[in-house]
Amino acid sequence: MNKIVILTGAGISAESGLGTFRDEGGLCAEHRIEDVATPEGFAKNPKLVHEFYNKRRNQAADVMPNAAHAALARLQKNYPGDVVIVTQNVDDLHERAGASVLHMHGALTGALCAACDHRWMAPPEMAPDDVCPNCLTQATRPDIVWFGEMPYEMDTIAGHMSNVGLFVSIGTSGNVYPAAGFVQDARMIGAKTLELNLEPSEGASFFDEARTGRASEIVPAWVEEVLV
Fold first, then answer.
1. Which of 2, 15, 88, 94 is surrounded by the most beta carbons within 10 Å?
2. pLDDT at 84
C-alpha cells in the first residue's frame, strides 16, 4: 500500500477552540511574535514568554480533540499501509485522539533545558527560576520551536517524504517553510497530493486536488473514502 504522509496545521485544531497564532482577538494577538516566539524575546523577557505559554498550555488542556483528529487516528489504526502524521501544532490533540505524531514545532506539554538540552514533561505553570531536573540550572524554557530555530524531526520527515505515495495537507496556511515545501517534495517523486482546508492555501495550486470546508466534516469524509 502507498505510504500516506499527512501534514496538519492550526486549522485542524481551530474547531476544538484553539485559534491560529494570528487570530484577531486571540491569545496570540496580545503580543508581538518577536516578543513571545523568538529566542531573542525569551532572552529579553523570560517571565513574559513563560506566562504566554502557560496560558496556551492551560487553554490546550481545557479543549478536546474534534472529529478531524479522531478520523486521522482511525486512519492511522486501520489503514493497511503506513500513515505518518506530521504536525505544526504544539497542542496534544492528535495524541489524545489516539494518534502517533511527529511534532515539527515542539509541544506545550514539554519543557527543555537551554543549558543541557534535557527534556521533561512541563508542569501546568513554568517560571524563569525553574531548575532543570538534570543539571540543576535555571535555564528552563518551553520545548517549542521558535521563529529562527530549526524545526524538529526533519531527518525523519525527509525519510518518509522520500517514499511517500500520497501527501495530504490539512488546515495549513501554506506559507511557513520548510513545511510549505513538502508538497513540492512529494510532487518531485511522483506522489499524489491533496489539500483539505477551510479555504485554499497560498500553495493550493501545487496540489493535485483541493477540498474546502470545515476540518471536522471534510477530514472524516476523506478518511471514510480511503478506508472503504
1. 94
2. 98
E strand or H helix at 108:
strand 106-113
209 marked as part of a ligand binding site: no
Is 94 annotated as catalytic? no
Structure-derived torsion over alpha carbons of residues 8, 149, 158, 106, reported in degrees to the nearest 10: -40
Domains and CATH numbers, the chain: 1-17+66-105+151-228 (3.40.50.1220), 19-62+109-144 (3.30.1600.10)
Write down the pLDDT at residue 32.
87
Which one from 50, 94, 103, 105 is the annotated catalytic residue? 105
Q: Is 170 strand, coil or helix? A: strand
Spell 128-167 as b/e; 16+ CB within 10 A means b: eebebeeeeeebbbbbbbbeeeebbeeeebeebbeebbbb
Contacts by 27-32 with C-beta closer than 8 Å and gap 24+? 27/52, 27/55, 27/56, 27/59
Angle separating helix axes 215-227 and 67-78, nearest 10 degrees: 20
**Is 28 labeled as ligand-binding?**
no
CA 120 to chain centre: 19
Low-confidence spans in the chain with pLDDT less than 70: 1, 19-29
**Region of residue 130 (left: phi > 0; alpha: psi -120 to 50; beta: else):** beta
| pLDDT for 113 | 97
How many residues would you count in the chain?
228
172 marked as part of a ligand binding site:
yes
